[in-house]
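User: We ran a pulldown and think these components assemble together. Before we commit to crystallization trials, I'd like a predicted model of the whole complex to look at. Sequences follow.
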Amino acid sequence: MATTQILSSDDLLKHWQGHRNLTRRTIEAFPEDKLFKYSIGGMRSFAELVYEFLGMCVPGATGIATGQWTAWADAKEVHTKKELLALWDHATEELNRIWPTIPGNRFAEVDTAFGQWPGTCTSFVFYFIDNEIHHRGQGFVYLRSLGIEPPAFWDRQGL
Amino acid sequence: MATTQILSSDDLLKHWQGHRNLTRRTIEAFPEDKLFKYSIGGMRSFAELVYEFLGMCVPGATGIATGQWTAWADAKEVHTKKELLALWDHATEELNRIWPTIPGNRFAEVDTAFGQWPGTCTSFVFYFIDNEIHHRGQGFVYLRSLGIEPPAFWDRQGL
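Assistant: Here's a predicted model for the assembly, 318 residues in total across the polymer chains.
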C-alpha cells in the first residue's frame, strides 16, 4: 500500500488543544498547596511541569510560525492555582491565534527548536504534545497517591 | 492559511514504533519483582499497564486493517520480564506486518474500536499511542520512587 496522508495541520491543533484541555483539568484537580509543593521520588512539582509545558507552547508555536526561537526557558513562576490557570488560558488563546499564521510548508521543514533540537516542525509539535502527556501522566500518579481521582484520560476534545 | 497535510500513515507507524521502543526500554529498567508487583496509590503494576498496551496494539491494528474487532481484552499475563519482552517484540513485528495491509481510505473512516469506542481510525491510533505515553509516564514515577533512573524520554526512534 502506498502511504496515505492522514493528518492536517488543523487536526494537529485540535489534538493539541484537546490534550491541553485535559491538562487544565488536571491542574484544577490539585489542592493548591500540593500543586506547588508535592512530588514523588525527587521529581518536580506538577506546577513546575506545567511551567515546562507553557515554555514549549507559545514560544514553540512562535518559533514554528516565524523561524525565530527565543532561548529556552520555562514559563514564569506564579504562586496560586488561579494565576497558573490564567497563564494556561492565555496560552490557549495565543496558540489559536498563532497557529493559522504558520506557513503550510513550515511543517515539513527542518529547523532547530530553541536553537538546540533539530527536526521537522511537525516533529516539534508532537514532541511538545507527547511531553505534556508524559508528565501529565506523572501528575496523575501524584493525585492518586494523594487519594484524589484524576480527570478521565479519554475525556478531552481531541481528534 | 489553508490547512496542510502534515503526516502520512508511514510517519504514524514510525512515531508509534518509536514510542514502543522507549516503552520496551522502560520495561527493561524495572527490577523483575517490581515490574509485576510494585505500584503507587493503588494503581496497576507496570506489567499490568503493558498488558493494556499490548491489548491495543496488534488487536487494534488488526481492527483498523480489517474492520474486524476482537472483544477488548488485555494481553495474556506472563510471569517474567523475559516473557513480557518476548510478547512485546512479537507485537512489534506483527504491527510492522499488519500496517501496510491497512487500506489508505481506512484512516479517515469512522468505525467503533473494539465495538465500544466510535471515532476515525486515525483517532484510534493516536489514542493507543497517547495512552501508552500516559501510562509509561506513570511507570517513570514508579522507577524514580524506587531510586532507578528511567530511560531518557526524548531518546527514541520517532518522527
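The radius of gyration of chain B is 16 Å. That may be worth checking against your pulldown data before setting up trials.

User: Thanks, that helps.
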